[in-house]
Each structure stands twice: as structure tokens, then as C-alpha cells.
Amino acid sequence: MRYKQYLILIAIAAMGTFGGCSSSKPDSQEAKKSSTSGEHVHDDGTVHKSHDEGHSHGEGPHGGVVADWGGGKFHVEFTVNHDKQEATVYILGDDEKTAVAIDATEVLLVIKDPATQVSLAPTPQDGDSSGKSSRFVGKHENLGTVMEYEGSISGVVNGTPYSGNFKEVAHDH
């Protein structure tokens, strides 16, 4: 129980500064914006909206928002499947591309608005070593809403807490 309280406190403390790129399915208005430069539509219909606010991680290897975890030691990539009401977070290395399996039992996703907290369970990918995972998945009905999400991702790796902030941003170029 203390572990979850600790993760919640980390997530709340981390809600200050947000940055990242986005991947979300467009609604009819978003579809009109998606033909502008800096955006592209993936085969599965998701739209990546790039931006530059002085520091950008760019698009993650799965088309999602990349956030820093631990001063660059790790990165996390947030993706959402609105149809399944499911979020997936990938743990990446310092190169922001290579999957890194960690020994965490869960990763906590906190969405700012609507206020939502989702515990993501380890869902190992091919190549993850036994007892570790580089992918964490969770479901919540609020993830079915097509919008730009803003929040934090936190977890504990080898006894060290990590937290990273992300924000999906719509652009009107």
C-alpha cells in the first residue's frame, strides 16, 4: 500500500512541467488539421503532431509521446488506443528508440484532465528478459475519449523512483 501512495505522490509532484509530442486518432476537426506540415497519418489512422518548444524528443518508435525519465537515463513513450480504451507505455533507453526491460511490477499513468489514474501492468515484449518488461498496458474508460492528453508516468526501477511528464499538443499551422 505504501508503494502505491509513494507513486501517487511522485506523480502529483511531477505534474508541473509538461512536454512531448502526440499520437491520437483525429475527430472530424482534427482530421482537417492533419494535412498541415509537421503532421502525418499512420497506417492505423493515428495522427502524429510534431512541435518544437525548445526541447523535443520527437516521435517515439511506436508513434507516441516520448518523455524523459531520470535525466535521460530512461525515456517513456505514451500511446493510446481510444477504441480499446487502453494506454500503453514503452520503456526506452537513452537513445529514445531501444526497448529497455525493467523489473517494475507496475507503472502509474496519471492524466490531468479528466483526472484519471491508471495502473499499467507489465506486458513483456519479445526479447524482454524473464521477470522484466519494456511494455506496460492498462485500460480505463476515460481513454476512449479522443483528445490531447496531459499527465505523468511514474514507476520504480531497482528501488529508484522515476517520473516523466508528457503533453499531447494539437497544432493549427
- Identify low-pLDDT runs: 5-55
Number of strands: 11
Helix-strand string: HEHEEEEEEEEEE
Strand content: 35-45%
- Structural Rg: 15 Å
Provide the structure class: mainly beta
Strand arrangement, major sheet: 4-5-6-9-8-7-10-11
Oligomer: single chain
Termini separation: 46 Å
Largest sheet: 8 strands, antiparallel
Number of helices: 2
Mean pLDDT: 75
Q: Categorize the overall geometry.
A: globular
Helix content: 10-25%
Defining key terms:
single chain; 173 residues; mainly beta; eight-stranded antiparallel beta sheet; three-stranded antiparallel beta sheet; globular
Task: Walk me through the structure.
- With 173 residues, this protein is mainly beta.
- It is built from two helices and eleven strands; from the N terminus they run αβαββββββββββ.
- Strands 4-5-6-9-8-7-10-11 form an eight-stranded antiparallel beta sheet, with helices on one face.
- β10 (150-157) and β11 (160-167) form a beta hairpin.
